[in-house]
Write a structure and sequence with these properties.
- With 511 residues, this protein is mainly alpha-helical.
- Helices cover 66% and strands 0% of the residues.
Length: 511
């Protein structure tokens, strides 16, 4: 009796033959395959690839990312699955793209790299279509994929320039993995720009650690990557308001390290370009934190030798601050004078270009605070032996706003610069500088002839006094030389007597 009952029970299938048995029994919908697929009607689901949901190894798709989400075969297309499965397929494709390949060897893992790139492109198309719903598992999977592909340590730099980045004589360095990185950046940007993105939900994954790793990537030597990072960080700053103070503080720390420690960073220009638009959005009155950023971060950026790489962006940031509050002009110009180059003519040209832009926005009250030290420095530039520096200093007088400021304060300014103009007229080697000097002297004579004549007389008096002092000094030195010659002859005679006396004494002893 027991044997008859046992013979009617279904036999247990071996693991190796389970799939074959499932195919042979596809017509029997009542058969249970819970240990294999955990679903009923297995034969019909396997025969139709469009409706199948394949279980994927937890090693490839971690449970921490996909908790509560069915993992769909990532090789499927979004068109080949139902709307309810698209979210699972999206996460499966993201996890597939977490695998990072060595792109330095194009022949290595070539087929896998092609599959990954095509999967990334599918993800970008799916997000751009607006069909995705960024739930927490989807956000976590996307941030995990971006972190796996983007966050990496750059090799040491062996550039000849101490400032890092590209200079006029150096070619930019391109990352061999850019074909993948570019699509990842595009996907990240579309995620941040997504209209229905829940910022409160996303900020737990796009957190401070994520932002800080993004900022580290600005040291990349690939200009294409820095350009993408610039756009991504700007969008994060605009959308995640909670991260704004942290981003400002982190960028300040990068600048401090660059200026006072390493003087090596490739992305200072891009960071300043972001902050140019950030500064323009500051509310008035300016917070003390923003002023400190100007004084302790932006102004010291005039110190490094590699300022030419980012000077245009730095000038724009400075101008944006002054546009917000003109009372900052005196601090800016004092900072320029503090870091004014002495031996680097190219930096001097950049400083004077920036100075002209600042002075164009300067009010009369602020100008009076800094005009004395400013024109003392400009007087040195007027007489520079480097003709481009001298020429640029003369051209400042052609600016109408600057000329107006000079005219109204000519009693103080002309005595500071007139001697430099006279010195140029008499001694400068460059004809173009001589012509500009003559033009300025004519302009000053038309502005205030009496003051010019007074300055001329004062210079003549000083020259006369200098000549008298020089003559007295010459006579004094001649007298000293004569006295020294007399003392030297007496000393020489004494030496002869000293030499004779021992000889006489020696002879007497010998006798």
């Amino acid at each position: 009796m027991i044997k008859q009952i046992l013979s009617k029970l279904p036999k247990k299938l071996p693991k190796s033959d389970s799939s074959d048995s499932a195919k042979s029994d596809s017509g029997n919908s009542t058969t249970s395959f819970g240990n294999v697929f955990q679903c009923t009607n297995v034969g019909s689901t396997i025969s139709s690839k469009l409706n199948v949901v394949k279980r994927v190894s937890s090693v490839v798709f971690p449970a921490s990312v996909n908790s509560g989400v069915e993992a769909v075969d990532p090789s499927l297309s979004f068109k080949d699955v139902s709307n309810t499965q698209k979210q699972s397929l999206f996460i499966s494709k993201l996890n597939l793209c977490c695998k990072v390949y060595d792109m330095s060897d194009p022949d290595k893992n070539c087929s896998e790299q092609d599959v990954k790139r095509q999967t990334l492109l599918d993800l970008v198309d799916f997000v751009s279509s607006g069909s995705v719903k960024f739930t927490e598992p989807a956000i976590a999977a996307l941030c995990k994929m971006c972190a796996a592909n983007l966050f990496r340590v750059f090799p040491p730099k062996f550039r000849s320039s101490s400032g890092g980045g590209e200079t006029e004589d150096e070619e930019p360095m391109f990352d061999p993995a850019w074909s993948h990185l570019q699509v990842v950046y595009d996907l990240l940007l579309q995620f941040i720009n997504y209209n229905s993105l829940d910022v409160k939900l996303a900020k737990s994954h796009v957190d401070h650690a994520f932002v800080l790793r993004l900022l580290d990537l600005f040291d990349s030597e690939d200009p294409r990557e820095r350009d993408c990072l610039k756009t991504v960080l700007h969008r994060i700053y605009g959308k995640f308001m909670v991260h704004r103070p942290f981003i400002r503080k982190s960028v300040s720390n990068i600048i401090y390290r660059f200026v006072f420690e390493t003087e090596r960073h490739s992305g200072i220009a891009e960071l300043l370009e972001i902050f140019g638009s950030v500064i323009s959005g500051f509310a008035m009155p300016l917070k003390e934190e923003h002023k400190i950023f100007l004084w302790k971060a932006l102004i010291p950026l005039h110190k490094p030798k590699s300022i030419g790489i980012y000077h245009q962006q730095l000038t724009y940031c400075i101008v944006q601050f002054i546009d917000k509050d003109q009372r900052l002009v005196s601090s800016v110009i004092k900072g320029l004078l503090k870091y004014w180059p002495v031996t680097n003519s190219q930096k001097e040209l950049m400083f004077m270009s920036e100075l002209e832009e600042v002075l164009e926005m300067t009010s009369m009250d602020e100008f009076k605070k800094i005009m004395v030290p400013l024109f003392r420095r400009l007087a040195c530039c007027l007489t520079s032996s480097h003709y481009q520096v001298a020429e640029r200093a003369h051209l400042l007088w052609n600016n109408e706003h600057i000329l107006n400021l000079i005219t109204q304060n000519r009693q103080v300014i002309l005595p500071l610069v007139f001697s430099a103009l006279v010195h140029n007229s008499q001694n400068h080697w460059n004809q173009a500088v001589l012509n500009l000097t003559q033009n300025i002297r004519k302009m000053l004579s038309q502005m205030d002839e009496e003051l010019v004549l007074a300055c001329q007389r004062k210079i003549e008096e000083e020259d006369s006094k200098s000549s008298d002092v020089a003559e007295r000094r010459r006579i004094t030195w001649e007298r000293l030389e004569e006295a020294a010659t007399g003392v030297q002859s007496i000393s020489n005679g004494g030496d002869i007597l000293l030499q004779v006396k021992p000889t006489t004494a020696t002879c007497s002893v010998a006798c």
